[in-house]
């Protein structure tokens, strides 16, 4: 694997680290199985692409994309807590609706951003093309900031209330926490992060495409699960760190699999590889536990 | 002070499973009073407690805590007034969070929640002091996850959590039922101490007539969704389990045949 393709894998991995942090909030912390991601990721991309193509500031585009994502997550939570629609079903409804909405926003199935200013443009040298290095670097800074902000938030009074809402809603209510409001806010935060990832994704890929959201949730979940396998989730800052590392490792493994010519895998096998990797990550902790038990039995 | 007026609650109304649980239940508890509640299975004890805490909403009737009408308030809205310890030791705490995080959650009960740090340094000091009174060595384990504690330890911490912020009413829902006898005795002793020290108004549901008479100032028996017995003062302190049974049979004209109430 060349250096360029390694950096490319890191770049996508960093973007999906944001998705994974969003998935961590919904699936793990709020205990809310949320498939909105497949709609909110392209929603962020669509909003950002339209704004950037319209000549607006790329950072502003990212901010508005995140707000749009927050609205989508809030809507999913609202369908669940106010109308009582099953969590998974509520998120599927929003995801499906977003496909049409995204087409409306974009006005076409794809928008090209080639040559337009992005958040990366100010850092990229015009003399020698260093985008392959600069883009992952800028993304790394964004991911680190997002991780640290989330860590601080989850250690705050409101953040702790959000974690209690997912862990034990009855106890949370007994402590005066409105679990409905916490679910609404947490789902908004989760999908804001995912939409921000979508906004950054279109800027690295040079355009938005209506089908760019397919499988987002699986990749996000894969990263969370791989992260949990890597590091024991003792404290929350370790959990967020593991999630980010999980996203990076996932993309590296994908890149390796695709680059290893002798295996004969090609780009169209991506989803198959994803499924196999997630399956492995799910089974690995169990195998580890079994091995440990065996060793324990021998020494005893 | 807590006042329940003519509470009615029917589960699954209009279906073959229709189950009228509360049928005109009225009870007034004065400030500082510690009331124990007994009753056979299906008498409406838990439903009554859930109605007071806001987990369920009564069909008709009203509920006042400290003069405020809370009948239509949800559980989290009345949390400032009502503190609670659940029957299940796992229900009152978050096992994935640390001891100090659980205590910090209880520290904000009835307060606004902002973006400042949940576990403040000043809190830690207070938590250590409070935990040391349990004599379980938990004061040195603030950072341990709640899930590592035994049922009895978790119930003791739940009690502590319920007393961190002032409340108008403490609800104890058979909070020793899931514990072994020795641990149950410890938790009950702790309950008495915390209620007395903080001069709390408390309502304790129990499955044991013995416990009901030995603790608190007043004992109330529920039967078929209503208060059928209400004893306090001298008549109560002279009373033993057989007397309570005899009194029940006298008022109801029927025999009580719930083993759970007779044993223990």
Automatic annotation (TrEMBL), chain A:
Its main location: membrane. InterPro entries: ABC_transp_permease. The keyword Phosphoprotein does not apply. GO terms for molecular function: transmembrane transporter activity. Keywords: Cell membrane, Membrane, Transmembrane, Transmembrane helix. It is a multi-pass membrane protein. One of its GO terms (cellular component) is plasma membrane. The keyword Cell membrane applies. It is found in: Cell membrane. This is ABC transporter permease protein. It comes from Aquitalea magnusonii.
């Amino acid at each position: 694997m060349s250096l360029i393709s390694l950096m490319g894998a890191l770049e996508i991995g960093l973007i999906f680290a944001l998705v994974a942090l969003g998935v961590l909030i919904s699936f793990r912390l709020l205990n809310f199985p949320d498939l909105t991601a497949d709609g909110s990721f392209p929603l962020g991309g669509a909003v950002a692409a339209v704004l950037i193509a319209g000549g607006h500031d790329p950072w502003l585009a990212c901010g508005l994309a995140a707000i749009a994502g927050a609205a989508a997550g809030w809507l999913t939570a609202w369908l669940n807590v106010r109308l009582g629609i099953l969590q998974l079903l509520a998120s599927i409804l929003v995801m499906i609706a977003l496909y049409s909405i995204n087409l409306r926003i974009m006005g076409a199935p794809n928008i090209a951003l080639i040559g337009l200013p992005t958040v990366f443009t100010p850092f990229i040298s015009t003399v020698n093309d260093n985008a392959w290095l600069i883009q992952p670097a800028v993304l790394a800074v964004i991911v680190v900031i997002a991780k640290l902000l989330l860590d601080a938030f989850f250690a705050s009074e409101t953040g702790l209330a959000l974690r209690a809402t997912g862990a034990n809603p009855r106890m949370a209510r007994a402590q005066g926490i409105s679990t409905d409001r916490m679910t609404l806010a947490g789902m908004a935060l989760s999908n804001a992060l995912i939409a921000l990832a979508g906004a950054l994704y279109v800027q690295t890929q040079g355009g938005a495409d209506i089908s760019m959201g397919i499988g987002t949730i699986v990749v996000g979940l894969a990263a969370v699960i791989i992260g949990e396998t890597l590091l024991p989730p003792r404290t929350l800052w370790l959990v967020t760190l593991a999630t980010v590392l999980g996203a990076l490792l996932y993309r590296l493994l994908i890149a390796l699999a695709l680059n290893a010519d002798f295996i004969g895998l090609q780009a169209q096998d991506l989803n198959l590889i994803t499924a196999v990797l997630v399956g492995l990550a799910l089974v690995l902790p169990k195998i580890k536990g079994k091995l440990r038990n065996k060793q324990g039995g021998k020494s005893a | 002070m807590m006042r329940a007026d003519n509470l009615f609650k029917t589960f699954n109304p209009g279906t073959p499973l229709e189950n009228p649980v509360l049928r005109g239940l009225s009870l007034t508890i004065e400030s500082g009073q510690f009331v124990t509640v007994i009753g056979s299975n299906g008498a409406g004890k838990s439903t009554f407690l859930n109605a007071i805490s806001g987990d369920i909403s009564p069909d008709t009737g009203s509920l006042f805590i400290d003069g405020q009408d809370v009948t239509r308030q949800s559980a989290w809205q009345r949390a400032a007034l009502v503190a609670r310890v659940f029957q299940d030791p796992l229900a009152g705490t978050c096992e994935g969070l640390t001891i100090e995080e659980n205590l910090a959650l209880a520290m904000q009960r009835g307060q606004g929640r902002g973006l400042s740090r949940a576990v403040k340094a000043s809190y830690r000091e207070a938590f250590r002091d409070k935990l040391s009174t349990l004599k379980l060595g938990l004061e040195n384990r603030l950072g341990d996850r709640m899930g590592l504690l035994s049922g009895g330890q978790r119930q003791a911490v739940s009690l502590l959590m319920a007393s961190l912020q002032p409340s108008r009413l403490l609800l104890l829902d058979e909070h020793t039922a899931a514990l072994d006898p020795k641990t149950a005795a410890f938790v009950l002793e702790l309950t008495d101490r915390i209620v007395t020290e903080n001069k709390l108004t408390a309502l304790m549901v129990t499955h044991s007539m013995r416990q009901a008479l030995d603790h608190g100032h007043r004992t109330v028996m529920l039967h078929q969704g209503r208060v059928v017995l209400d004893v306090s003062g001298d008549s109560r302190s002279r009373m033993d389990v057989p007397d309570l049974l005899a009194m029940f049979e006298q008022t109801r004209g029927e025999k009580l045949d719930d083993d759970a109430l007779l044993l223990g």
